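Structure tokens please, single chain.
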Amino acid sequence: MEMIDALRWVDFVVPQGEETAASVIRACKPYIFLKGDDWKQRGLPTVELEALSVVGTRICYTPIHSVSSSGLLRDYFWAHADQMTGRA
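Here you go.
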């Protein structure tokens, strides 16, 4: 969230505290609502689609990548564990 919020063209990032973002959409009235492209396949929840329509928000999808920072750190650690712990 902090990385997305730090982008200069992002006005604000809201954590999702509910099962859908419908109430946040209605409260914030965003110009663009961004979701991962995995949602294109399964479709957005009806309440979110209704909120987007009422507010007039544009939905955009971003590609989801299988690379995660946690995975990279874990792989690096195990590749260098002996050296990092002084066992090498």
